[in-house]
Fold these 2 entries.
Entry 1:
Amino acid sequence: QITLKESGPTLVKPTQTLSLTCTFSGFSLSTSGVGVGWIRQPPGKALEWLALIYWDDNKRYSPSLKSRLTITKDTSKNQVVLTMTNMDPVDTATYYCARSSGWFDPWGQGTLVTVSS
Amino acid sequence: QSVLTQPPSASGTPGQRVTISCSGNSSNIGGNYVYWYQQLPGTAPKLLIYRNNQRPSGVPDRFSGSKSGTSASLAISGLRSEDEADYYCAAWDDSLSGWVFGGGTKLTVL
């Protein structure tokens, strides 16, 4: 059974850096073709893809957020970390991680991050 | 504004068939597979359709997907109250080198 779970701060201040960890089980990020992605969803709004890291350490970022995002993996710990700099209230959202094998499935439960002073 | 365009809402009565459209361009839907996700209230999205028209195991055959040119559709037949959810389409975009989602369609079962 594949599971993913997001963890990190629930509240960050404007201009701070957000670091979120996705801890997964049931698959390995060293398996060819496998990746882990991050997607967010502001309250009441649509899904927005953020970043994706592949088994071979290839990385893809949303063009609109690329300058603020960094995605890394620790294969031995079954973890993927997403860092987002210069947080703003508009970044308030539920952040999801999901396994990718050509598409996102399954997804973690998500973690709500609020940006407020 | 989402790259893929979906109607914000759709509705139907139990037993009816409803369709949800998703419109893109040649960089995304026109040249790549389309995926559909179902998001029940208060939960994470769940894969509903992959590679245009394939259903993961456990997804009822009441759900079907299709694609033509730069548009795709999700059809739900025999509508049930538990189908009330938000539905999102997604595709890889070659120009953006990233994933794009639709704005989501809220399905109401009357």
Entry 2:
Amino acid sequence: GQNIDQPTEMTATEGAIVQINCTYQTSGFNGLFWYQQHAGEAPTFLSYNVLDGLEEKGRFSSFLSRSKGYSYLLLKELQMKDSASYLCAAMDSNYQLIWGAGTKLIIKP
Amino acid sequence: GAVVSQHPSWVICKSGTSVKIECRSLDFQATTMFWYRQFPKQSLMLMATSNEGSKATYEQGVEKDKFLINHASLTLSTLTVTSAHPEDSSFYICSARGAGPQETQYFGPGTRLLVL
């Protein structure tokens, strides 16, 4: 079956760095997406990786290892506004997104 | 990034009535639109996928006669919840994707439905 695993909840301190991991098992693979979802709001797109390696976009970076079925989202210089759920989604061979349950990130001052 | 709008953002209705939710892609042509439902503190659940001009593909367990989806143009898809019941109360979110299957899905702001 197809499956996405990511931690349910993480806590970090303002100004620090946090890494949110995601492992996936899909029928075929056409890329890995990360979305941010604030409470009560719809998800917003953060990143897309289809090749191995690190993609940096400001304070946020996303990494992919296709051979390991593994990705992480790295958030630097954490701000209080980064408190949100982070959703990992893998695209399978039918171009369907398989969604993780999300990681709730709590930022403490 | 691409902009997707949804209307209405909030709707409260009586049990047994029908509710229509609109999803529009404002600055790109959405070949494919997706409808999701999300209950509090739960993950996104894909309800159906619609391609412009063709019938929607519903996920297992989603009643197509209850959740009517129309994708008549490249910028508009509608979801109608027919004969709504309190258990249909949820956060309904649409997303839209351009022509390429690997293109990013961009989400609308969501519609909160409360059925009394």
